[in-house]
Design brief:
mainly alpha, globular
Amino acid sequence: MKQFLIAIDQLMNTLAGGWADETLSSRAWRENREGLREFIDALFFWEPYHCRASYESEIARRQLPPDMRGDALTGTE
């Protein structure tokens, strides 16, 4: 179910002109969209700094399957 929700989030971001493999939350943090970021963080009130955490997850590539995270050629993460 979580992967489905992430896919919907990425679709909404893409429809709003963002990158296809990025969530709206991550984009709100990356582009420093304060109003949008505050709104999303309020929706996820149980997760402090949701947008920042989403951005950090994108950077760490945690949305990918485990065998695709990091550098697949060298085996590093």
